[in-house]
Amino acid sequence: MSPELIKRLTEHQPSLIGLEQCRQAAVLIPLLETPDGVQIVLEQRSPKLKHQPRDICLPGGAIEAGETPRQAAVREACEELLLRPEQIQVFGLMDVLHTNTLMLYPYAAKLTDYDMTYSTAEVERVFCVPLSFFQTQKPEQYRITLPVHPPEDFPLSRIVGGKQYQWRERREDIVFYQYQDWTIWGITAKILQAFARITR
User: Fold this and answer.
1) What is the count of structural domains for the chain?
2) Residue 190, domain extent
3) Cα separation values, 79 from 42, 52, 94, 159, 199, Å
4) List of long-range contacts for 44-49, beta carbons under 8 Å, 24+ apart
5) pLDDT for 9-65, tens place per residue?
6) Which CATH number characterizes residue 80's domain?
7) pTM of the predicted model as reported, rounded to 2 decimal places
């Protein structure tokens, strides 16, 4: 092997294959210190939003060009909760969530002088859930199956089995928490389930 090839192999920094097909986003896990213990601030999305109206979520959104995931999480939290960056003390990156279509970076952070403000353009309301709830409550879990649908021009004749090829179905666990009247589910619930394991 040539020295150039060996150099390329030994100095390569691995990345995730297919990452360019994933939407990359970041969220903040906003923590408040209260007399009743640490609380997590959650949002109910505005009914005016096109995607997931009225779902419960963490502040966050897409990572913009030239922006780090951490910068995106702070920027989105400032926009959605009407915060100033100096009100956010970021502790660090928590467990990253990766699906076929999304790479999501969650950052734990403490909020100071936060008065439950929010932007009505994106948020219908905000509320708090004790961290201890997620640490002690076992979530419901349901497995869904997502079938494969090749496009019409897919070259089935070139693979063994052709039209009868046995595609492996994609399975995904969907997590639910019920806190009072609030249903916290999906990606938000998965992020909080992982966060509870870290903090428990």
Assistant:
1) 1
2) 17-135+183-199
3) 14, 18, 21, 49, 27
4) 44/123, 44/124, 44/125, 44/126, 44/127, 44/182, 45/122, 45/123, 45/124, 46/120, 46/121, 46/122, 46/123, 46/124, 47/124, 48/121, 49/122
5) 999 999 888 888 889 999 999 999 999 999 999 999 999 999 899 999 999 999 999
6) 3.90.79.10
7) 0.90
